[in-house]
Design a protein that fits this description.
The structure is a homodimer of 448-residue chains. In chain A, 35% of the residues lie in helices and 17% in strands. Chain A has 448 residues and is of the alpha/beta class. Chain A is elongated and about 80 Å long.
């Protein structure tokens, strides 16, 4: 990687250690057994959506591509693995030259998914694919969980913009990924400067209660903020008495005041009162921003309130009750050799204890009705039925180790809006329910 | 920082952008208003524990110290802030020379806390302290949430070791911090190699179902693993039929087989059957490791089962239902000037809409009964009562900008065990309840 990139506070020089130890011990054993080079197909999917959710949102794909590209074992890492005796010399030799040379296909970022959807497929030797399990799952499970919550909030907010402000409620780098996933899911801006720096997401923010408390009078704080940031700024009006603060705010900034922010109390009631007061004071264009432990339900309940924007923190970065997706990364087929022509044998865990999988290398397509509305997620092995050929969901992401599908973050954001719009209307109901599309399996029968 | 450290995959060159934009706009306005240098005291505390929890666990303190030390605005960052017009030139000048020069005190890492406990106190100019809000909260809120879950799981597990294996269920760098927090909370090992590399936490891991599926027969997979990793390895026995796998495992490895892992099914039932089978096969010292969506309740329910170690993933890294603590960072006192001798004025948000705080610079002490068992968390302003003088909880962490309290990770781990042992017995009940200690406020009355 470009060493200049080391200046970026959210990059890491290598992603190779974001890996569970067992990936390396499996590699070690497979190298010794001569099975490490067997051509293999791994798939990422989930057996279920979070309880009550209607659809999932694929997010993090772009970050996965970065991670795969940066997956390298440098000297420091190799020394660590040697000293800890995690792997043997043969494995260290393999790792020193590691570079993913296989293919990755997947649902494009922003697309929706359902139980069984093969959201990502990784093909190559067992050795090169197995090592990527942990980092791919970390990224997709985290980012997709956040994007799913963001999408529900965006549905509930309608045309009103959503501000992501949850950095303080999650790990400092998870926060950057959360802001990115929130943007994919429909948020407009973030408070997180690292997310603005790294991903170009628009950033916002004006002041906290501390700023008012720093000054001798609320009026002094407002004056200081307007002097520095202009009349278009957003003044926080709930440090002492909201009514008095709104009056002072308009006195200080005039009717050109950009917005007031309310961060506590009964937001429905207070928003109505503040709107009325602002209108009476002639500040008809001054907006109202609310920010207090909002989730999609609270946002929906404010639909009729005179609110212009929502700031969402905790509930966004914790996935609104579901902080992780339950995607898994499973070997679904492998050949006897490394030969690209060797036939793939479908494989699957078969224990009676649950967690069984469907073997075989899969395609997926979304069948639509006569109005273009989705009616089923169809997942299959073998040839794709002709009527679904142009409804396929997996796209090429990496070919022969080279990333082929980079895109700017607005692309998955727009894609998500389009994909959600083609789901049945019940998709955006906030109430708990079944996945809005059934998953149908169209497997090739043996011998057919 | 040492550029050699850039090789570490979990370090970042600067933590300055892990910051909400409003910290910088507040700074900008305060610089212009001439209030930025006012001596200020910020405190970190929570108004409540997660619903039903009996105690909190302070974790992340060591990471906060790293973050404060690395909080620098380099050229790339300053350029970003200038281009986005987030701050003005005067603020950029201030940021270019930024270096925290104040003092930080706090509960030592691993200590328990309760609602209102001032777990960290940051003192300096308003300007230098306000900038640290977001990154300090990100770290403490995330790490403390994980450590609290870990502590409950460790209580439930008793003497049996816990393996942290949740990396795939959370952001790849949150995973590293989660492994660290889990260790502080009582876990023994982690699967996450980056956590082993960065923090020296012991790492473990052997194989997944994919390794069995890669091979033509389960026996081949077991043989390959034993050949590479020795008879002391842990074989995963639930890919096909558990009984058959256990028989094969002992045939391949002999009675010296280290352990078998069960990752699905009714663990209580299966563990009993497997133990009986292993004993009948003469593999009396072969251990049983269980790993399947465990949480503290599942661990407790296996107390009577013949299980030797637990692997915990999802529920650990998501805080077992509470993925974030709700700590806040509030200005509690400030002077009129930068003069160290200027009197501090207590300040607090007073709006009727909730979220009120207690003003004033605080001390905290844990009052104990005649048997040394804690009976109250006492928080106050003003002089510390003589009888509590040697029960104080805050310790110096940073003095004049220099970190004074670095410690190896075993110290907070041991401290947590000791602190928890001095709580009333009901602290380790898993059932929902009130905080096990009441928080008492001992505030100096005006004029006293």
């Amino acid at each position: 990687m470009n060493t200049a990139d080391l200046g970026l506070p959210v990059d890491v020089p290598s992603t190779a250690l974001f890996t569970d130890q067992y990936e390396l011990t499996m590699l070690r054993a497979a190298l010794k057994a001569g099975t490490a080079e067997r051509r293999s197909v791994f798939e990422v999917f989930t057996r279920r959506l979070p309880d009550g959710r209607r659809y999932g949102v694929v997010a993090g794909t772009g970050r996965v591509l970065d991670a795969v590209e940066n997956f390298r074992f440098d000297e420091d890492v190799l020394r660590f693995l040697r000293e800890r005796e995690i792997v043997d010399e043969a494995t260290l030799d393999y790792l020193a030259g590691y570079r993913f040379t296989g293919d990755i296909w997947g649902y494009p970022e922003g697309e929706v998914y359902f139980p069984g959807s093969p959201v990502m497929r990784v093909e190559g030797s067992f050795a090169e694919c197995v090592l990527l399990e942990t980092v791919i799952l970390s990224i997709l499970n985290h980012d997709s969980a956040i994007a799913a919550a963001a999408s529900r909030m965006a549905s509930a907010a309608g045309d009103r913009p959503l501000i992501e402000m949850g950095a303080r409620r999650t790990h400092e780098l998870a926060a950057v990924a959360a802001a990115r996933a929130a943007y994919v899911g429909g948020f407009a801006t973030t408070s997180d400067l690292a997310a603005g720096f790294r991903y170009g997401i628009p950033t916002v923010g004006t002041s906290a209660h501390a700023f008012t408390l720093l000054h001798d009078r609320e009026r002094d704080a407002f004056q200081a903020q307007v002097d520095a940031l202009g009349r278009g700024t957003t003044l926080l009006v709930d440090t002492y008495d909201v009514t008095e603060a709104v009056r002072t705010a308009v006195e200080v900034a005039g009717p050109e005041l950009g917005a007031v922010r309310i961060d506590s109390g009964d937001l429905l009631l207070v928003a109505h009162r503040v709107r009325q007061q602002l209108d009476e004071l002639g500040a008809r264009d001054t907006k109202i921003v609310v920010t207090s432990d909002l989730d999609e339900y609270a946002i929906a309940s404010l639909a009729a309130a005179p609110v212009d924007a929502y700031g969402v923190g905790t509930q966004l970065v914790t996935g609104s009750g579901h902080p992780t997706a339950s995607m898994v990364y499973k070997l679904v087929a492998r050949a006897e050799t490394a030969d690209p022509g060797a036939p793939l044998v479908p494989v699957a865990k078969k224990s009676s204890g649950g967690k069984t999988s469907v073997g075989g290398r899969k395609w997926a397509a979304r069948r639509v009705d006569g109005h273009g509305i989705a009616e089923a997620e169809v997942v299959g092995t073998g040839p794709v039925p002709a009527e679904l050929a142009d409804r396929q969901l997996l796209v090429e992401l990496v070919k022969g180790g080279e990333v082929t599908a980079r895109e700017s973050l607005d692309v998955p954001r727009d894609r998500h809006i389009a994909a959600r719009a083609r789901l049945p209307l019940s998709a955006t109901q906030l109430s708990r329910g079944e996945p809005v599309l059934p998953t149908e399996y169209a497997h090739r029968r043996s011998g057919s």
